[in-house]
Amino acid sequence: MNTSKAVQDFPVAAPSRLSWGILLALWVALLVIAYAQPHQQPPHNPVPWWLVVPFGLALVVIGPYILLLHRRIRLKGRMLVAEAALHTRRVPVEELSLDQARIVSLDEHIEFKPMLRLFGFGLPGFKAGHYLLRNRRRAFCVLTDRRRVLVLPHGKGKLLLLSPEKPQALLDELRRMAQTPPQD
User: Fold this and answer.
1) In sequence order, what are the residues at sequence separation of 6 or more whose Cβ sits closer than 8 angstroms to the Cβ of residue 40?
2) Are 75 and 177 in contact (CB under 8 A)?
């Protein structure tokens, strides 16, 4: 089998219930605000306003919900591909400093916590995209679980922070790939 064409998926850990709860709370809050306002039904409109409001406000929540669902980590050939929300990062395995890679808890290693979103999407318990970390380094993040984060250094001091369900399995596969020479 030609390993340069192989694709391996590593499922991303599920986001916390807080992320889902925030979206639900946002929708409920918008509904309360909308229904608290005085409304008058136009006589030429056969659809009652109280029926349109929940569906219209659901559109506000559906976009972030879809972004929350789209998350994937895969090895495609000799390329690590991390996708979340509308952001994708592709890094050749050869560019990763796997001898410095480690699995950490962001509660213990606060220097790796995302501090400032540069270009990304975030909810409590979910971070995707480019962030500035507390240690002032830049990182591409796909974070759903703060307790098990795979930190992968690569070119020019940048980092990848990933939350696969099984971070050790991903790290082991990356190290195995780095030890095998590329096949042409």
Assistant:
1) none
2) yes
Contacts of 182 (CB under 8 A, 6+ apart): 4, 78, 94
**DSSP-derived secondary structure for 27-74:** HHHHHHHHHHS-----TT--S-HHHHHHHHHHHHHHHHHHHHH-EEEE
pLDDT tens series, the chain, 184 aa = 444 468 888 989 888 888 888 888 888 888 888 888 887 777 787 888 777 888 888 888 888 888 888 889 999 988 999 999 888 999 998 889 988 999 999 999 999 999 999 999 888 888 999 999 999 999 999 999 899 999 999 877 899 999 999 999 999 999 998 888 777 6
**Could you give the CA distance from residue 1 to residue 95 in angstroms, rounded to a whole number?**
24
Count other C-beta atoms under 10 Å from residue 64's C-beta.
17
- Which residues on neighbouring strands pair with residue 117, listed in sequence order? 131
Contact (CB, 8 A) for 46 and 151: no
**Which residues, other chains included, contact 162 with Cβ-Cβ below 8 Å and sequence gap of 6+?**
12, 73, 82, 141, 142, 143, 149, 150, 152, 170
* Sign of CA pseudo-dihedral 13, 15, 17, 20: negative
Residues in Cβ contact with 147 at an 8 Å cutoff, skipping those fewer than 6 apart? 105, 106, 107
Q: Say how far residue 81 (Cα) sits from the centre of its chain.
A: 12
Please state the pTM of the whole predicted model: 0.80
